[in-house]
Design brief:
Structural class: alpha+beta
Largest sheet: 6 strands, mixed
Distance between the termini: 37 Å
Oligomer: single chain
Helix content: 25-40%
Length: 433
């Protein structure tokens, strides 16, 4: 999300000093309109004052240095703290500087060390006042540093990325304990190929859990596949060999699973199929890799009617807390030709899994910094650091389905610490009939 520029008056077009220049050390920094200004303006002015005053104090130390290790040694402070301070004062934008800035207490320690190292009082005192105003801003207007980071995430892309990652990681740790299960990686790969009737697409799902383990006995671990459209009659998923999906020897891609082969319990309920881990082990020693493939012939429409704006889509679900979700869509050249996928993340907590063509579900969209990455043509471009022997897995499926691997183009969504219970959808423009 871009930071709204209208909240800060741009001022005259020429001969206007920067915010840092307007807030020279010892000036007090804020002016009479500070309390009535918007929160964004107050944060920006605070950041500009910190930039100016800290930079002046750092430059005033005898034999000043701007290298983290040398500064840490000179001041007798931690190298990580020295690095954070230097990154903050290098920021060109005051709000970015606030994002990078250590908290008030670490800044007080830095100023004490600067004073002990010879920085004169006329540079230290303005910096101390700036830190106190920074502290007051956090406590009075925001409550704590975590709330400040949440606000900054709306204005600074790097702040938002870091904010989301940390919160998602914390959610993963909490939910894996609550659910009693976790996985290193969730694999959800869909391959789309024209059906023999010319009007539909055959769909093969490669589903997997890498390094999945129960953290306590009896915890539920499952993967679900489902079809949202019911215009094709009853869903009839099969293995790559054409057997019912309950035929586990045919369903499992054994050479990509751990040994001994994990056991699954298969239950079909209408348009959904649930694949649940059936073993009773728990703890790190029970961790396993589960990979299986499900084929659905003539599963989805290849075209849209002339009077329809419906989009084709495929989606993955985060049904197990995981460190990584790898969601790939591999499309045959004749499946949605020329279409560039759009990404939509959906909160399923209240209404369940969504039909992305239902406008009523737009309110459930999660606004997060995730993206679709094109992988180009051919399976060799789909290598993965998260799924062992992944390209071999794709070749195995193409061989079983008698599909030409050179005819596929790929798109990938890779998410660190995907939000448990979220639906990750790739949307494609359908060609008209």
């Amino acid at each position: 999300m871009a930071r709204p520029v209208q909240a800060v008056s741009p001022g005259p077009p020429t001969d206007t000093p920067s915010a840092a220049a307007r807030l020279a050390p010892g000036s007090g920094g804020h002016g009479g309109d500070f309390e009535s200004a918007s929160l964004e303006v107050r944060i920006e002015r605070t950041g500009a004052e910190l930039l100016s005053c800290l930079s002046a104090a750092l430059d005033a130390v005898p034999a000043p240095t701007r290298r983290p290790q040398a500064l840490a040694a000179k001041l007798g402070i931690d190298k990580v703290l020295a690095s954070r301070v230097l990154k903050a004062v290098r920021a060109a934008d005051p709000i970015s500087a606030v994002h990078r800035m250590p908290g008030p207490d670490p800044l007080r320690r830095v100023l004490g060390a600067l004073e002990a190292s010879g920085a004169p009082a006329h540079t230290i005192e303005p910096a101390r006042r700036a830190v106190e105003r920074f502290d007051a801003l956090i406590r009075r207007d925001l409550g704590d540093r975590s709330s400040l980071d949440a606000v900054l995430s709306a204005w600074v892309p790097e702040a938002r990325r870091e904010f989301e990652l940390r919160r998602k990681q914390a959610a993963f740790r909490a939910l894996s304990q609550l659910k009693g299960a976790e996985a290193r990686s969730i694999l959800a790969t869909v391959m789309l190929h024209p059906s023999d009737d010319g009007m539909h697409l055959d769909v093969v799902w490669i589903n997997g859990l890498v390094g999945v383990q129960r953290l306590r006995p009896g915890a539920s671990v499952k993967i679900t596949t489902r079809r949202m459209s019911r215009d094709r009659g009853d869903r009839a998923p099969r293995t790559l060999d054409g057997a019912p999906v309950a035929d586990l020897p045919s369903l499992m891609l054994r050479e990509f699973c751990s040994d001994p082969l994990p056991r699954l319990r298969v239950q079909q309920a209408g348009e959904s199929v649930h694949y649940a881990l059936d073993s009773e082990g728990f703890g790190p020693a029970s961790a396993s890799d589960i990979v299986f493939a499900e084929a659905n012939m003539r599963e989805i429409k290849r075209f849209r009617s002339a009077d329809s704006n419906r989009k084709g889509y495929v989606f993955a679900e985060t049904s197990v807390p995981a460190a990584v979700l790898q969601f790939d869509a591999l499309l045959h050249d004749d499946a949605f030709p020329g279409a560039t996928p759009q990404l939509r993340l959906i909160d399923t907590a209240f209404e369940g899994v969504a039909d992305v063509n239902d406008p009523a579900r737009e309110i459930d969209t999660l606004d997060m910094l995730e993206s679709v990455e094109p992988m180009g043509r051919g399976l060799a471009r789909a290598r993965s650091a998260d799924v062992p022997r992944y390209t071999d897995m794709l070749a195995r499926v193409c061989g079983a389905m008698n599909w030409d691997p050179r005819a596929f183009r790929g798109h990938r969504v890779r998410i660190d610490y995907p939000v448990y219970g979220s639906q990750v959808a790739m949307l494609f423009d359908l060609p008209p009939v």
